[in-house]
Every structure is written in structure tokens, then in C-alpha cells.
Amino acid sequence: MAAIQFLNVGKRYSEGHDALIGVDFTLESGEMAFLTGHSGAGKSTLLKLIMLMERASRGHVLVGDEDLGALPRRLVSWHRRRIGVVLQNHQLLFDRSVFANVVMPLEIAGYAPEDAARRVRAALDKVGLLNREKHNPITLSSGEQQRVGIARAIVHKPQVLLADEPTGNLDPELSEGVMRLFEQFNRIGTTVLIASHDLSLIHRMRKRTLVLKNGRLVSGV
Ligand code: ADP
Ligand code: ADP
């Protein structure tokens, strides 16, 4: 089954700039792939269409069985909950503990507190930070902060995990660790799409790689 499908997708921003042109690809359920290309090639835009942070100007974006162009407004938050997102600057809140950061998606989704706590600890365990739950994330290293961001992205067991330059601030060794984590989640069935311009890292991972150039997919389809 397809997890993500782009059918002749175009994205034109209001200023008239075409960020994506005729993009066609399918990511199968359970696949892990990279998305690369020069700065401005359209990587972030492509991820934003999947998260419905932006809408396609033409064509169709499907996640699972859902055509996002036809998704009723009341289902947008349901849709976003199917997806976990990891960003480069991980957007942790420094006014609360690691635990409180990771539990946020579950609070929004209305989980019972005991159930939420159990899931948060399972997520922190997976990223090797169980002993840091009471710490303020500002006291952690950048690699640890990024792993808190990953725990928060997977705590609600999303079908799809998207990452936008998740290793942008990390040295090669930490980057490798983050990639191994993504592989672990992929092995248990999560579909993973990672935007990155770190070509040597991508090369080492030996996964399917979609390449964007000036808004067009030129390789990996
Ligand atoms: P990448 O992630 O590969 O660097 P982006 O998807 O961020 O590329 O950007 C693709 C193109 O779209 C770039 O030319 C960028 O300037 C433009 N762009 C991105 N976001 C917007 C926006 N909100 N409004 C107008 N143009 C944008
Ligand atoms: P075209 O035949 O020109 O590719 P479509 O019939 O696929 O256009 O789509 C018609 C309109 O529906 C598009 O112009 C776009 O505004 C909207 N649309 C289609 N898919 C999506 C989507 N995934 N998200 C948001 N809007 C969409």
C-alpha cells in the first residue's frame, strides 16, 4: 500500500514562484527514503504539502487513502496526528522538562495522563534518554536535544515520520546516531522521509534517494 503519493504536484507561492513542478512519486508503506537537492530546490515545500502546512497548487497529494486536496477541514488535525515531524531546530520549549516537551502531542490528542506517561517513557527509552525526563532540555547537549525532538515526533506512533534537515546542527557521529534511530522506527513499520543535503551521510545509508532540482524530481522516482 502507498503511504504517500504525489500525482503531478505543483506548488506556486503567491509571489508567483514555482517551488514544485510536476512532482510524481510514491512512497510505499514501510519505506524509508531521503529527499535531497540544492538549497531552494523545494525539499521543505514538499514536506509541508504532506503535513498540510501548505496546499498544492495543482495535482494531488495522497497520504494513505486520503487525497489531501479533498480532506474536510475538520479532519486536518486528525491528519496531522498521523504524521510525526522532526525539524533541524527541534523547537523544544525551554520553560519545561524533557517529559513535558515529549508529552505535548499526547495532551493535544487527549490521552489519559497515565497512558500518556507510559508512552512518553517508552519514547524516551527508545532514544536513550529515560534518565533525563526531569531535566530542562536547555541543559542537554545538541545531540540529546535532537533526540528529545525525535521522541516527541514518535510518541504518538505516527504512520509517517518526516524530518527536515534533522542532522543540520550535529557532527557526523551524532548524525549517524540519529539516522540509526530513524532506521529503528522504520523497522517497526513507520514510513520515513528525510530531507537532507548531507550527501555523504545519505550515501552511507544506502536508501532510496529522491533528488529535487529547481522544483522538479530529477532522480529516485
Ligand atoms: P529547500 O527546502 O529545498 O531549500 P524550499 O522548499 O524551502 O526549498 O523553497 C523552494 C523555493 O520556494 C525557494 O525558491 C524558496 O525561496 C521558495 N519559497 C519557500 N517558501 C516560500 C514562501 N512561503 N513564499 C514564497 N516563496 C517561498
Ligand atoms: P490539475 O488537473 O490542474 O492538476 P486538479 O484537478 O488535480 O488540478 O486539482 C484542482 C485544484 O484542487 C488545484 O488547483 C488545487 O488548488 C486543488 N488541489 C488539488 N490537490 C490538492 C492538494 N493535495 N491539496 C490542496 N489543494 C489541492
Report strand %. Answer: 25-35%
Mean pLDDT: 94
Q: What is the β-strand count? A: 10
The chain-level structural class is alpha/beta
Termini Cα gap = 16 Å
Q: What is the rounded Rg?
A: 17 Å
Total helical segments: 7
Question: What general outline do the C-alpha atoms trace?
Answer: globular
Description of the structure:
The protein has seven helices and ten strands. By secondary structure, it is of the alpha/beta class. The strands form two sheets. It has a six-stranded mixed beta sheet, sandwiched between helices. The site of one adenosine-5'-diphosphate (ADP) has 10 residues, from strand 4.
For the structure shown, list the relevant keywords.
four-stranded antiparallel β-sheet; ABC_transporter-like_CS; alpha/beta; ATP-binding; nucleotide-binding; binds adenosine-5'-diphosphate; six-stranded mixed β-sheet; single chain; 221 residues
Topology summary:
Elements: E1 2-12, E2 18-28, E3 32-37, H1 43-51, E4 58-63, E5 66-67, H2 76-81, E6 83-87, H3 98-109, H4 113-126, H5 142-154, E7 160-164, H6 172-187, E8 191-195, H7 199-205, E9 208-213, E10 216-219
Helix pairs in contact: 3-4, 3-5, 4-5, 5-6
One adenosine-5'-diphosphate binds next to α1.
Summarize the structure.
The chain is of the alpha/beta class and 221 residues long. Helix content is 35%, strand content 28%. It has seven helices and ten strands.
